[in-house]
Amino acid sequence: MVVSKANKLSSVFISRIKNSGPSAATVKNRDIPGTSQAVKDLIRSKISSSGTDHDQTPLSDQISNLLHVSASETKTTNILKIPSFNAKMIPIDISLRSKELSRERKGRRVYKKNGLSRRFAKIFRDSAHKLGTEATFGAFDRVAKEMSVTEYNAMIGVYFELAEKSHDLEYALDHIEKAFEVLKTMRDRGFQIEESVYGPVLEYLIDMDMVDEFHSFKDVISESSPGLVERLGYYEMLLWIQLGDGEKVEELCGDIDGNEDSLTLLQENYLLALCKKEQKDHLQRLFEIIDITKVRSSDLLTNIFGYLGKFSLDSVASKFLWELRESGKGDFDINKVFLLWQIIELACVICFSVMFADEGVKNVSDLISIYSTCSPNLTVEDTILKFNKMHEELDVMPSSTSYEKLVKYSCDSNEVVTALDVVEKMGEAGVTITADILHSLLHAIDEVLEFTLVRRIHSIMCTKSVKPSSENFRSMIRLCTRIRDFEGAYNMLGNLKNFNLEPNSSMFNCILAGYFREKNVCSALMVVKQMKEAGVKPDSITYGYLINNCNREDTITKYYNEMKQAGVQATKRIYMSLIDAYAASGQFEKAKQVLLDPDVPARYQNELKSELISALASHGKRADALSIYEEMKETKSQVDPKSIISLIEYSDSDGDLNTLVQLADDLQDDNSWIDGFFRMILFAVRNRKSSNILDLLKGNKVRLSKKDFHVEYHFDEVFWAIAETEPTEVKLGMALLRYMKEELGFVPSRKCLDFLLHACVNAKDMQNGLLVWKEYQSAALPCNVLSFLRMYQVLLAAGDLEGAKTLATKIPKDDKDVQHIIEESQIVYSQTPEKK
């Protein structure tokens, strides 16, 4: 029998569903029956975090008032029939299980990613931070009859978000129960429960091995929508796979015999789960008995061929593809053919058969692209060769969608030039190049910083069959400005008419921003004039750029008034631009007064204060910025992490290191903390306050050791600062090197060792220079010409002329620059200080 890791907690949860009594005491000061010591220790190691402000969005006329009702005032008629519990403030940034599960589910959040549900979820989440979840739940309970399915979906999403973040098992169960009650209310009100809602819920319960809870939720979902029974089979299979119950998995697999005319939806969902979890033994047997042409689900076909590609099962893939090729089916539902056969005359059947055959070939091509791009240990070039070879063997032409997959795969692998080759081949084959393909290319160019490749895309557009979008043109114009090719940007504006597209403000704004980056104000103002002549109205982004690049108060006022006269609504970005412009022009009081403008919405206040902190700190008014930050901390207002980092970055050279340490600790999310922490370390190195650096690093060893942190780059910056700071602290550098290797388990990078060796040159420290030289070998980094030259300089600077002479014989001297550096090093480092 399978035992759930939640153990006796399952019975606790089930009993709560049946009884509406108060919750038990928290687990903070007592043991949890049936829970391992490891789980107990996890539960007790809580981490607290500050809350966030909320955005005002009307759900009904009562919502804004209800959000501020106290917990004692919310105990009224309970429409959702939720039992009353003691309100508990939310422990944020803690996880019941490894946070890797949360990251996997990020893209599958319970509530839909549309504007309304996002706003409602934000209201609900922020209210829970301020009032506690119980008071918030009671407030929304009072208007439950007015709530739509969107609001219910958002509530479930927030409950499970809080449950999966919590380290308090009792707290997590409370929120699972609340979500369960909301789900029952949706069922009772006749709402359809969509997979975007129940899918992440069931996956969470599966991840937590909560078997009884899983079945309770599954029953409510199936009762609300009987048509979901087959789809729920997918999650049931996932559950037994997760629990390692081979008997149950085998029992469900037994339903798939391959003898029917087609696979049932339930059988297809079982297969899909097996593919997702890569159950090799079961799939190997099933692939021998199923008829691939009977698979109706395109999602299942995609996963089957993705699985086959991942494990390089060429023979099985070839067999399936030939069967699909001969059937002319691909992922087409053959039942539709039989239906049409009965209702359409023979001539029409023949016509449609041709169409279906073409569709089948197209889908075979798509499956080839899936299989080839999922094959491991292949370079992009080898993947393309495999793609072409399989098409030739099956005698099918690549479809536009298979080409699109291949282009995206190449772009995701940062092989942009190869992707462009594929696109050119598409054009030569007469395949239309879609806007999505262009988007993948342009995004990849941006990622790899190969901006000049935009010219090749433009050339393809002028010579091949292409259907670009306005967004494609905007991206190309922006990339042209990044390489200062403003003529090319204007040429692209002129080519819009060839594709029946019109210029818009975002295109002109890209050129405007480019000229401002180059400090070419005259050309920037000319863009605005050309914009108006083309009949394109400047928008808030246009005025934001204009205001942000002003250095005089009268000019700022001029553009702001012009914007209002044009009927352009002031946005948050406009107010931020005003703050930045006033601060840049030395009008600090004016910058502060922007927040007092009665037209500024209250919901912008925290973000504008954060912008003000950054603007003041970066323009020499750090004391004022710090004062505003302390005020926001006292009122528990949310501060943009970038503003806190600005306070660290622009600290005075005689600033207090302890203040910077506290600022870094105030950064809650990991990425911001890493940035702020290492800026604080750099400050300490550059301002001779390095005595506590090792203690700070050792105190944060656990956080720095996280797998998803890439801190090596930040250490490179620290070693660079050590090399550039006079007098050079080589001992600190060597201590950091030992810490990286022994405490964090890092292998030092070439940059790290290069900077450290340069520090040894400046310090004339031959002993440590020789130790660093050995580190190249320990790190399996072959010494290059630059490494030899630095070590040569170390020996010269330390006075070991014989050693330097011996090393010089090993340095390749084919390059004239290398010869020049050797000669100059002899002059600079071998002379006495008096002669220098």
UniProtKB/TrEMBL annotation:
Domain PROP1-like PPR: 408-563
Keyword Repeat: yes
Span of the signal peptide: none
Pfam family, one: PPR
InterPro entries in UniProt: PPR_rpt, PROP1-like_PPR_dom, TPR-like_helical_dom_sf
Keywords: Repeat
Ranges: PPR repeats: 504-538
NCBIfam families in UniProt: PPR
Name of the featured protein: PROP1-like PPR domain-containing protein
Organism expressing this protein natively: Brassica carinata (Ethiopian mustard)
